[in-house]
Each structure stands twice: as structure tokens, then as C-alpha cells.
Give the backbone structure.
Amino acid sequence: MWYVVQVRTGDELKIAERLQHEVKTDEEEIFVPLYERRKCIRGENKKVTSTLFPGYIFIQTNDVEDMYRRLVKINAFTRILMTGDVYTPISSDEERFLRILMGDDFVVEQSVGVIEGDQVFVKYGPLCGLEGNIVKINRHKRIAILRADFMGGSREIKVGLEIIDKKPALA
């Protein structure tokens, strides 16, 4: 089961790496979901990655109580998300949605699409077929904001989307 662990924003990768070395067992997986996008840096078009959920890392474990005891021993802010007094894994639907977006390497690759009128059509990438979840596009930053049900509420998630063409609506 996948559990969400809150950490200090900006420390996700550093703490995930520490947990990999200090508390992870062979049966467990610790990861930080990331997303890719293209960004113009000093006139050069580069691929950059950012955290998909700032301030959170994910742990796949079958014994969350034992994981909690191991997390307490490290000297860093880590808190497994709970509902009431119970550690709550993400639902199987949420996990399936994230696996579709991220793939096996836990990185959401940049999608490519076009705009025709006021409709977005994703040509390829993980957003293909998820156009209905897109609530906003920032063409300048090459990102799309998706709305998805996650951890008991509706969340907005940034992912990479490059719009390569924009056509007016057909009459």
C-alpha cells in the first residue's frame, strides 16, 4: 500500500534519499513523484523536473506501524498522513491514476498537445485521454493544471504540457 509522508517543502528528495539508506527494507519502496517540463534557461530549451506534490514523499509498505517507528528515529520532520487515529493509505483508484501518470520511474513525462477553439487535444504523453481533467493551461510555463480526487479531496496537480499549435474554432 502507498502511504503519504509529509516532509518540509523543498527537502523531499534529500529526505527520500536518507530514508532509502537508513530505514527502507528490501520489500519497501520510497519515492518522490516528479513531473517533467521544458523550460527556457538562458535562451536554451532544457528539460527540468519538479516535485508533483511539494512537501510530500510516498512510501510503499505493508507494515506502516513499523515504518512509523523507524521514521521517528531519524532526525527530520516526517509525518505519515492519518485519518483520525489511523494511518491512511491512498486508495487503489488514486494509486492507479498516479501509476498511469507516472509510469514505473515515478516521473510524469511532458505531454504534447494542440488547442482547437477552446478544446485541448493531447497528441501523446501521459495526459492522453485525461483532457477532461485539465482545468488550466499556462502555455508560457508549459504546464497544465489537472483536477483530481486525491487523499479525500479535490486537488490541483501541475504537470508538463507543451502546446505546439493553436487553431481557432471551426464555424
Helices lie at 12-22, 64-73, 92-102.
